[in-house]
Structure formats: C-alpha cells, structure tokens
Design brief:
Chain B: Residues 3-144 form the MPN domain. The complex is a heterodimer of chains A (273) and B (204). Chain A is 81% helix and 0% strand. Chain A has helices at residues 2-20, 26-40, 47-61, 65-78, 83-95, 99-112, 117-129, 133-146, 151-163, 167-180, 185-198, 201-217, 222-237, 243-272. The chains are: A mainly alpha (273), B alpha/beta (204). The A-B interface holds A 24, 27, 61, 129, 131, 159, 162-163, 165, 192-194, 196-197, 199, 207, 222-223, 226-227, 230-231, 263-264, 267, 270-271 and B 21-22, 58, 60-64, 66-67, 92, 94-95, 100-101, 172, 184-188.
Amino acid sequence: LNVLIIVFTEMRDKLRKWREDNHRNSEQIVDVGEELINEHASKLGDDIWIIYEQVMIAALDCSRDDLAWTCLQELKRQFPGSQRVKRLAGMRLEALEKYEDASKQYDSILQDDPTNTAARKRKISILKAQGKSAEAIRELNEYLEQFVGDQEAWHELSELYINEHDYGKAAFCLEELMMTNPHNHLYCEQYAEVKYTQGGLENLELSRKYFAQALKLNNRNMRALFGLYMSASHIAASPKVNATVKKANVKYATWATNQINRAYQVSYARCLL
Amino acid sequence: MSIKLTTQAYCKMLLHAAKYPHCAVNGLLVAEKQKEKKKDSHSTPILCVDCIPLFHGTLALAPMLEVALTLIDTWCKENKYVIAGYYQANERTKDFRPNQFAEKVGARIAENFSEAAMIMVDSTRFTMGCYEPILAIYDHHENKWKCRDCNADCFEDWCEAQKITSALLEGRSYESLIDFDNHLDDLRNDWTNPEINKSVLHLC
C-alpha cells in the first residue's frame, strides 16, 4: 500500500513541476494525468481541478478529444459559468479547427469582461494558426498598448517578428523584456542573437556586449559563450576596425575558446561518471 | 544530381519532427565524401547516410546556426562526410512550402556542395504507419529550387525505411532524440544520436 502512495505522490508532483515550468510535454502529461484522474481522483483534493485543466490542454495536443471532453465536463459541472472554463471550451474548438466557433466563444467572454486577456490572446493564436501573421502582429501590438506589462505577449511578438525577418522590431520587444527583467540571462542572450542576425559592425559589437552580459548573469549559458566567440571573431576579422579594437576582440574570442574547451572537458568527465 | 536517403537519415528526420509537433524543426543531411568524380558521376545518386537534427522553435536566427555548421563541418571532415542537404518542417502543419530561410540555408550548403538538396517535411501526411514518404525534395538549378517527386526511388530501401521508422515512432524513440538545441542546453547530449543509430541497426 505504501508503494502505491509513493507512486501517487510522485505522479502528482511531476504534474505540478510540469505546470510550474510550463512544459509542453503533452504525451507524458496525458500518460501521467489520465492515470492519476482515473485511479486516484479521491486522493487529489482540490488539486484535481487544476489537474483537469492541465490534462485537458495536453489531451488537445495529443488529439485525445475523448479525454479532453471528460475533463471539460468535470470542470463545467464544478464551475458553471466560469470564464476560465469557457476559454478551455474555446481551445477545444481551436483544436478541432473550428476557428469561427472558437472566436465566437472568446467574443462572448470579452462581451462580459472586456479586460479578459486570456480570451484576447486566444484570438491572436487563432490568427497565428491560420497563418495570418501580419494580422496576428497587428492585433498583438494593439493588445500590448493596453497591457504593456504582459511579458508572455512581448515574447510572442518578438518570435512573430523573427519569423518575418523583421529583426529590428524583434529587438525592440526583447529590449522591453530586458528592461523589466534585467537579471534574465535568456532575454539578454536572445537579444544578442537578434542583433547578430541583423548584421553590420555596430550590431555585431552590441551582440558581443549582450552575449557577455548574459554570461555574467549565467556563466553556464553555452549559447552566450558560443555567441561571444562568434561575434568577437567576426569583429576581429572585419576590415573596418582599428588595431586596438581588433586586438581586444581577438582576446575575447580566445578567452571564449578556452572556456568552451573547458566546458566540453567538464561535460565529458561528467559523462564518464 | 539526385539524392537518395538511407533508413537512418529518414528515420531521424521524422523522429525530430515527431518530438516537437508544435514547433518548426530543421537539420542537416550528410553524405559520404566521393573520392573521385567519375565521368558519369551525375547519374549516380548521392546517398545521404545520416541526419543531424539542429533546432526546434525559432529557426531564423544566425549565430547558433553558424556554430552548428562549423562544428558539424569539423565532424564531417573527421568522418569523411560532406554536408549534402538541409531539411525543415514548418510550425504550421499545412505549411509545407520552403520559406526564405530554408532557401537561404539551402543556398549556403549548395555553395560547398553543388548537388545539395533542400527537403521539406509534409506534416499533413505524417502518420505512425509511415505508409508513404512525406518529403518534398528540392534541387538547386540555376539559382532556383525545383521540386522533385519523392517516391520509393528516393530511398536506399523504402520498405526498410517505412518499417523501421514506424517501429521507432510507435516505441516513442523520439523522446530520446537529441538535436543541436538539446546539446546547447547540456553538452553531454550527443547530437550524433548513437543510441538511436543502434536501434535502427538492431531493427535492420
């Protein structure tokens, strides 16, 4: 009996960790979550509702409409008239590619609550799913004028711009994110990648600085380390730089090479353990 | 002028796409380096023996792609391979045409290998059974990419490729597939995927 309790706790904790990390490992969530719901529902207490939501979304990812429907019904029964559940019903319609019906669902949420950010973002997701990138970008910009602190939205917008090769605007979005999250090494590193991609000496130098900054914030960020090496090497090789700048960048590139080699040696050693 | 794929190359491409169904994915194909160009070399197809999965998610950024090309080029030289192709599966299922980025990378590879191919994965026909090849192969002709029909002839052994890819999909081997992004997250992750290569050999 003890073994069963341990198994149950492990499963519940796994689901919680995946929720907190916003992991999209939907097949695993369905595997663990379905068993948890079917075998251990009574032990879950109030956790069960958030688990129904998590499993439902994962089920949609895996085309398990049967499972998604079951979860949705449980949530509808427990929370009648809830906007949050209405949004989940909308997501199910999206998964079935019934985009017009889904849009109507979100519009009805917005009628009752015009500030419902989740519904607005789902509408933008529909545009993205339909390949209407220009419209998605326009709507997302409008949304961000109103909800300027929504980090997830800024990040989504940066990705949409990158896919359209509009690196200048992608950089602007990442600048917003860096301003509000100065200790986030990932935003620094992504900004550096965008600047590098934009090209030109000035952007390369900026990219090198931000790769370096990302490394300062997290010295294990391999992308930042490689990026530092690449940008410094390109600057050193540029015919437009003077001898001082060239020398400095050769130094940075050499330092980065040594750090990269060390990192590989450490990882090989850990492999053997 | 045309390329053929081994089971291992096809398999790992599809496993990569299956691991990240909600993302765009891309990668490289490698062929064995030909010792000499024979007189009728243009009639012998290039055999792509392996596939290196690169990235998932946002593909269109330069620095990590350059790092990957550099490291993989070195690995190719050590193993007498040459980078012979590029594959991409777009984020949206219905979107299986090559975009500007795919053409750019393809052109870059063609600079070093004139018979380079660009391959787009058609996710709309992606099934567990793998009953038909789901690739569109593009050849570089006079600065344009021309689509070639992909059928069983594009494979070293289509029956084997179909059987083994399907078996690995059913067995969820894609969960352990490593791409270059995974390698950058943790250097211990091996983008040559030796375990999956073993599984393919085992099933042959």
